[in-house]
Amino acid sequence: MSVGTLVRRFFLVEMAQGMWITLKNHFRPHITMEYPRERPALAPRFRGVPRLRRDPGTAEELCVGCLLCEQICPDDCISIVVDKRPGGKGKMAKSFIIDYERCCFCGLCVDPCPTTPITAIYMSHDYELSDYSRQEFITQREALVDGHPLKRYAK
Amino acid sequence: MDSRLLIENVVIPAIKVAVVLGVMSGAVAYTTLLERKVLGFIQLRLAPRRVGFHGILQPIADGIKLLLKEDIIPDQADRVLFILAPVISIIPAFAALAVIPFAGRSFSVMGYEITPWITDVNIGILYILSISSLGVYGIMLGGWASNSKYPLLGSLRSAAQMVSYEVPLGLAIIGPLLLAGTASMTGIVRAQETQGMWFFFPQIVALFCYFISGVAETNRIPFDLPEAEAELVAGYFTEYSGMKFAFFYLAEYTNMIVVSSIATTLFFGGWLRPFPNVQALSFLNFLDFINPALSGVFWFAFKVFMFLYLYIWIRGTFPRYRYDQLMNLGWKWLLPLSLANVVVTAFILALRHG
Fold it and tell me: Who's near A88: CB < 8 A, 6+ residues apart?
């Protein structure tokens, strides 16, 4: 053991260094987010629950009932019944059900969606999904398009 | 037997005991909050913030929670000892406060002279040593009476640890005692006043030994082997819940305060302001205009607070010692060091006084 090591040990230099680091930590800003009051800033590509949306111009439902999302879904959580679009050409989803209990938020359903200029199904930024009964997780088309009321935990 | 004698000998001591108990319970409660806050800051967290402004009412909420909790006594436990153990551990902790001088000068209320300590016996420090070493019985009985593995292991560790650290603790105290020439708590502080220095300056080694042993005696991190939560669930109070659990906690924090108070009295001049004999610094007793006793209390509380902060700061910094390291430190380092300190101090004093 060299003299330097001996001196360092005897005067507890490492211990003093440790104390100095914790002392410095007193004055660093905290990293806690007080969650219900403060919210994290989500990245644009954040994947919350998948939702449907309307054409921003005409407010028509964008989904054309092609069933591509139903087929690609790895969890089989999407089930669609297709019908003719009333008073127009093409088809639409008569019933569009997403079972969030199964959804793994992979975002694969968005990739094959053929509608232009924006996809009919998209990953929204809603992530507060806890609820009291399993029925609540099976979401119908109306709720998917127009948004269902999320529980607000913040006061 | 007139009423004045009765008041002086019965009523006033009873009131003083009540005040000390009340203030110390409050101080203990807020020490827990201080601990959580400081640990939070060290770990870049926010610590309790929901109850009251910045969590200022958190100890009260904790107390209510613990009072309302179900009080479970295990089926196979020794009922009498199980109930007695928290009481046994808390009584010595509070009893040790009886001889601690909180301020130097007495004050008068309605013509009665009141001293700012409960009692001043001429063997004060011996009294504290003997009383506080009784606290280990509470821990041992608690661990044994639980009739469960982890508490038993924890209490065994605690017994071994307390026995080995009592020795350097006692030896470290001898240094200041030699310098002061008295074992009375007020006498030690007065000696520091007349000699014009706090004893930590000549007795820095003793302070070091005393404080490390004190941390070990109170079972605090990095010497918290009796309650090592990673190994023993919660050590000796694993089976405890509700108010009995709170009693163990209360005893631990009271012991922290007692250890800090003794360190303040022996090494840091108790109620004295810094540099007690330098007239130019007398403005430091800025509470004198209200009452000279009050500035004594202020400085005493300030120093104790600093020690408590050091306790918590150490807790936030160091990991727990291994069991053999703990024993090595106690027997191979602290004991020879404190013994050497006693010898050197005695030698120098003998040379100086011829």
Answer: none
Contact A34 B318 (CB under 8 A): no
Q: Which amino acid is at A126?
A: D
- What is the pTM (predicted TM-score) of this model? 0.80
CA atoms in the 13 A half-sphere facing the CB of B42: 21
Per DSSP, the three-state class of A8 is helix
What residue has token string 């109930």? B83
Asked if B46 and A30 touch (Cβ cutoff 8 Å), the reply is: yes
Q: What is the pLDDT of residues A35-61, one digit of tens each?
A: 877 888 889 889 888 888 887 777 777
Instruction: Encode pLDDT of B169-193 as tens digits.
Output: 888 888 888 888 888 888 888 888 8
Q: Is A22 on the interface with B (CB under 8 A)?
A: yes
**Which of B36, B37, B38, B41 is the best mutation test for A, with the most CBs of A within 10 A?**
B41
Q: What is the ipTM of this complex?
A: 0.72
User: How many Cβ pairs within 8 Å bridge chains A and B?
Assistant: 33
C-alpha separations of B206 from A108, B76, B222 in Å: 69, 45, 20
Is B91 buried (19+), middle (13-18) or exposed (0-12) by CB count in 10 A?
middle
Phi (first) and psi of residue A139, to 5 degrees: -105, 130
pLDDT in tens, B306-318: 999 998 898 888 8
